[in-house]
Amino acid sequence: MPHHEIAIAGERHALVPLIGTILLGAAGGWVASLIGTPLPWLLGAVVAVGTAALLDLRLGGGTVTFPVRLRFLFVPIIGVGIGGAFTPELIRAAAGWWPSLIGLFIYVPLAHALAYLIYRRLGRYDRPTAYFSSMPGGLIEAIAMGEVAGADRAVLNLLQFSRLIMCILIVPLAVTAYEGFAVGSAAGVMLKGALNPIGVWDVLVLLAAGASGVLVALRIGMPAAIITGPIVMSGAVHLAGLTDADPPAFLIQFTQFVVGCSLGVRFAGMGRRAAAKGLAMAFLSVASVLLLAVLAGAVLYRAVGESVEAVVLAFAPGGVTEMSLIALSLNVSVVYVAAHHVVRILYTVFIARMVWLRIGRQG
């Protein structure tokens, strides 16, 4: 029986499995919101859709499916929201971030080496696969460089995407357990301007900031351009006093849902045994690297005038988008977190290239 298909964001998807995936993700988000998890629409969608993908659950004759490119249309919303946190006071405070930036330059090679040892010694993956899977940042760059170096593409994709997903699952839940009460979106925290009245002028300014930010960032090659460009442009229009509005809270929540579904479907089509091994290795790697981030937070938070949670999030090996969403949810300094992740990505890719030129030749 032929499947009816629909085109979304340049991708074609079987209609019934797509609807089933959306409903499954929505159910996961709803359950997560009922039990009070942080980032419920992100965590719930990731767990529900990811589990269905790993179990090869059939939805109307097909596996889970979701237009992953759709996230590129929604991620700039997060960037625009982060830009709304720019204030003259924050810009002045940024001069005091240098201790944690120096700490980041020490943390990145340590985290890369620790994850590499886990994947190489315990996971028994070949050298290129272990090396590029253990990069604590720059997902797209890690996959591209790993493929050129001869890494196992399926394993590399699994371990790199698992790094993001594990951080999304572990960090907010760990903070909730540490604080002893519901935090972030579980407690109703939103963007500072998300509940402000938003007029036509505000909508036009924010749309222009998001679109122009993406275009300029892509043109000049900024890392994670679809979020960093809107951050900078939105920060500029807020500092200039053109608007004090932020994207509405429901858009932030829907973006969580889109990101969660797009990450969950990454597990579709993977062999269960290989996936189980990869997830176990990824969990061990991420947990070990997060312990380094916690140590950095305990050492550096007073020096930079931020909370321990903010420093841990700034060092955590997740993506800019995902960690920024968590920072928004936990009501910590999202600009501080996002800035450190941009630096982390640039530094990780630079160091990974330089080191591989040496050890790759030796191998």
UniProtKB/TrEMBL annotation:
The keyword Oxidoreductase does not apply. It comes from the Bacteria. It holds the Pfam family AbrB. Signal peptide: none annotated. Keywords: Membrane, Transmembrane, Transmembrane helix. One of its GO terms (biological process) is regulation of gene expression. The chain crosses the membrane at residues 14-35, 41-60, 72-91, 97-119, 161-178, 198-218, 225-243, 249-268, 280-304, 324-352. GO terms for cellular component: membrane. PANTHER family: REGULATOR ABRB-RELATED (PTHR38457:SF1). This is AbrB family transcriptional regulator. It comes from Thermohalobaculum xanthum.
